[in-house]
Amino acid sequence: MKLNKTIDVLIVDDNSSIRSSFRVFLNNIPNINIVGECSDGGEVIPFLEKNKVDIVFIDVIMKFIDGFEATENIKKYYPHIKVIAFSSLDHYSFRKRMKESGADGFISKFDVNEEQIVSELKKIM
C-alpha cells in the first residue's frame, strides 16, 4: 500500500526507544515525512505552533500530560490535524476514551505493521 500524498507526522511518546523504533518503521513508508518528536503531551501545542503537521501519532499514557488531554488540546486549537492514538493499552475503554477526546484512529503497538498504518492513514485523511 502506498499513500497518494506526502503526510507530515509528529510522534509523541514518553519512551525514547519507542519513538526511535516507530521513527525507523515510519521511514520505510513512502510519502511519510516525520517532522518531529515530543516526549510528553505538554510539548505538543508549542511544537504545532511552529511546525506544519498533518497527523499526530500519540501514546495514551504519559507521565505529565497524557494522550487524552493532549488530544483534546490538539483538537481545540488545531481541529484540522488528525490524531492517531498509538498505544500498548489496546482495551475498548482506552479506545473509547481516546475517541471521546477527539482521536481519529487507534493503532495497537503490539499489532502494528506497515499495511495497518497506511490503511489507518488513508481512512482518516
What would you note in describing this structure?
The structure is a single chain. The protein is of the alpha/beta class and 125 residues long. 41% of the residues lie in helices and 22% in strands. A 5-stranded parallel sheet has the order 2-1-3-4-5, with helices on both faces.
Secondary structure layout:
Blueprint: E1 7-12, H1 16-27, E2 32-38, H2 44-50, E3 55-58, H3 67-77, E4 82-87, H4 92-101, E5 105-108, H5 114-124
Parallel strand pairs: 1-2, 1-3, 3-4, 4-5
Give the structure's gist in a few sentences:
The protein is α/β, with parallel strands linked by helices and 125 residues long. Helices cover 41% and strands 22% of the residues. The protein is built from five helices and five strands.
Features:
125 residues; alpha/beta; Rossmann fold; 5 helices; 5 strands; 41% helix; globular
Residues in helix, %: 40-55%
Structural class by secondary-structure content: alpha/beta
Overall outline: globular
Number of strands: 5
Text of the CATH class: Alpha Beta
What's the mean pLDDT score?
89
Number of helices: 5
The CATH superfamily is Response regulator
- Rg is 13 Å
Largest sheet: 5 strands, parallel
Secondary-structure element pattern, one letter each: EHEHEHEHEH
Q: Could you say what the CATH architecture is?
A: 3-Layer(aba) Sandwich
**What is the domain tally?**
1
Low-pLDDT regions? none
